[in-house]
Specification:
mainly alpha; 9 helices; elongated
């Protein structure tokens, strides 16, 4: 069976694409490649998918999209920044996956467990005004995920994570 992400361009080899752009002109600012790269967050997620093809990037995209922007730094330098952030996201994912596993062991079942845990450890929803840098947010989230108390989570808490109930017709 074909990988559905490959049909939609997800999980493709972003490094290969970035390598081609770096080879084209590594001294040009990253912002000049925005047309090709779409969103800075997608570059970081692409690196994550390259390293872990079954990575659940959808839970992290809103955070990255809010905090990552294209810069006027040379592309060669920004690729290294995206790789560093991808390492931080994957480290956070390990902690989130451990919390999700503990929730499943307690009998909680939902396709939204990962998104639920990420939302619970995300400090951005409480920050008014200018958010801190992405690296700081990821560090905070990693710390919160590491000490995530699954004993406090009730099945009712997960009910809201799935969205409103379907309307009966």
């Amino acid at each position: 069976m074909a990988d559905p992400r490959a049909e939609h361009g997800e999980g493709s080899q972003p490094q290969g694409a970035l390598t081609g752009l770096v080879d084209e002109d590594a001294t040009r600012p990253e912002s000049q490649f925005a047309f090709y790269l779409d969103q800075a967050a997608l570059v970081t997620l692409g690196v994550c998918y390259e390293r872990v093809p079954r990575f659940g990037g959808g839970a992290y995209h809103p955070i990255l999209r809010r905090l990552e922007i294209f810069t006027d730094e040379p592309l060669r330098a920004t690729v290294k920044d995206h790789e560093k952030r991808a390492t931080m996201v994957l480290d956070l994912e390990e902690k989130v996956a451990a919390a999700v596993k503990k929730l499943r062991e307690r009998g909680l079942v939902s396709p939204y467990l990962r998104s639920f845990v990420v939302a619970r450890v995300n400090p951005l929803r409480w920050i008014k005004g200018e958010p801190p840098p992405l690296e700081e947010v990821l560090k905070t989230m990693r710390e919160r995920a590491a000490k995530f108390n699954v004993e406090k989570i009730k099945p009712q808490d997960l009910a809201g994570a799935a969205g409103p109930p379907d309307e009966e017709t």
